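ok so i was messing around last nite and threw this chain in just to see what happens. nothing serious, just curious
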Amino acid sequence: MLIASCLLSFCSISSEISINLELSVKNGEILDFGRVNVDATNSQTLYIHNIGNAPLLVSDFVIQDIHGHDEYSITNNTCLSEIQPDGICEIDIEVSPTHGGTINDKLSFTSNELNNNNYVINLTAEGIFSDYALNASSLNFGEKYIYPEQTYNKDISVTNTGTEPVNIKGATVINGFFEAVSHCSTLQASESCNINVKVTPNKTGEITDTLRVTTDVTSAPIKEVSLRVKGLDRVFTVTPASLNFGSVPVGSASTTKAVTIRNTGNVNLAVSSITATSPFTVASKTCGASLTPNATCVVNVKVTPTAPGANTGSLNIVTDALRESTKTVALSVTGTTSSYSISTTTLDFGTVEYGRESATKTITVTNTGSLPITFSTPTISSPYLIKSNTCNTLQVGAKCQIGVAVTADRVGTIGGTELNINSNAGIEPNKAIKINNVKASFSRNTAGTFTTPKISGFVNITLKGGTNPSGDTPNTQATQSTVTGTNIDMTVDAGKTNTQIYNSNGGTLTVNLGKRGYYTVIKEYPRDQAPEECIRISGDMHVDIWEYGCPVYGEDGSISITPQ
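result:
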């Protein structure tokens, strides 16, 4: 039992009666309950000792409840009856703090002491508690675009709202959609710290999670903060990724094919342009300036092929999507048409014997288009002629042939012409094949001479110098000589001014050319019906046909005339 060494005494002084009491706490002093946890209790006992010689009466015990919290109370009181001399009673007082900090109050009572019958005991305690507060129960990051990727930050503040240190053990995010970085450890009373919360939205729609803060506060070891962000995206799809219109005739419009655009994001999508490259066109569309989330629109495309074979292009859709703002649909069509090719564009018959027909030359015609072709009869001018023709209706990929020949109806040059091929082909229906000039000549016999047709009467042949078109210097004119007879040789040498050869007896007349040079053979016939064929040379000679006769050019050789 604790008895204060210093007594509060009240004495009723008389010669016979002494009423005194002794308190464990002096009157007016403090009964200290110490540090008491909020919502916990602590008790102290006040002892009253009757040190007089007469019964002691104490009463009217009142706790004044200065602050109105009613935190002190009398839980036990044995002082309600007379206290005999040297008797002790006790009053148990309990404090139950409802808040932190100093808790002061007063206990008052009265006694039957004659000189000091009112007593006050000051009550004091310090309410203590551990607690903390978060400045928010939720963090809303709002609406954020997921592209380009970006990290957003917000802080949660943790404050020690108690009187005792608070140890922040951890800050974690439950599902991992957010990230928490704690800058907190141990907080003293009234101290604060921050927990940084980060989020990098990576999907559209609502993203939620929970931040969990763990402490050593027994009353609330865990507190949670709800986390939210809404991921936004402007994105769209185009289906199909390509369109093939198949086969369409060149110059004809196809049927339309549809492309569907869908806003697969969760914000409005602006559609700024929809265009197609030639020969494709946008026939119609239901797309306006924008598409709401999950809405669709349709673009109808058609094509008019401009060329046979593969025609390609694209449909280009431009939007304000955050990535892939432009998407392309590959477009293709096969242009069909009728066309054909020919195996050659020129024919050359070379030299053809006078009075005879040349060998047939063949032109191959191939249908290179995608439709059948109908040909009309090919045409050509005389003395050229169509020898054969299998070109009528030609299926795709098929071939036909046209045979052409020439009859040498004259001696000398037969002028060239054209072979005309006409059809209903869509591309270049009519084609012309050029035929080069033809040389018509006499036949060479086994002896190496050229023969003329049968001639009656005499033949007057003049050899004289001339100008070679290729620029060679001609011989000087040969000297004149008259030869009559059969098989007479006549040598023409340089320096001779003129040579006339008369062969009136028939047979073969030979004129030997003594020197390389250029000569003109002029023929004279007694009858108008005599043909103007050339007289040819034997040996290694080059002969061209001139208007005025037969130019002869070459090394040593001879001119031979053999009447038939």
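not much to say yet. The radius of gyration is 67 Å.
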